[in-house]
Amino acid sequence: MTSSVCFYCIIHTTLLLVIANGAPILINNVLGKRWAWPVDNHLKLPDGHRLFGNTKTWRGCCSAIIFTILAAVLSGFPALTGLFFGSLTMIGDLLASFIKRRMGRTESSRARGFDTVPESLLPILLLKTPLALRFSDIILIVFVFFIIEELISPILYRLHIRKQPF
């Protein structure tokens, strides 16, 4: 495999992460509260905290998966890779929210690094072969995605696209 192919895979995988994570935010801005059913159906666990919280919705998960499928196909990956990528990204995001709720953190609270690692690492680690990624590529993508989130979130907040500056 040439380094240009690897570079292509790194760029497109990073774009898939940005799209999978950005789709729920954009859809929320377009639709507001319409069809925003929480994934956890308001379920509280014995610790007194919600399973995931109000910000994790079926609409957000579905939008992430649909937009990631479209982006994957446009990037030259099979639609099935996009489906798995979007799904795994949302599973990682839900896992991070689940853990943050168990730690007593409020919805949409910041846990620097922890917010981005599960949702980026899970899909690229499990799909490294179809994405043609090496271990060093995976580390680079997780790091780049973290930096992108750190730089873009405050801008999206100032543009009133995000509700939190992080």
**How do the SSEs run, as a string of H and E?**
HHHHH
Which spans of ≥5 residues are poorly predicted at pLDDT below 50? none
Note the overall shape.
globular
Please report which band the strand proportion falls in: under 5%, 5-15%, 15-25%, 25-35%, 35-45% or over 45%. Answer: under 5%
Walk me through what this model shows.
There is one protein chain. Helices cover 63% and strands 0% of the residues. With 166 residues, it is mainly α. The longest helix is centred in the first third of the chain and has 29 residues. The protein is globular.
How would you summarize what this structure contains?
With 166 residues, the protein is an all-alpha fold.
Keywords:
166 residues, mainly alpha, single chain
Present the secondary structure layout:
Layout lengths: L2 H29 L26 H17 L4 H24 L14 H10 L8 H24 L8
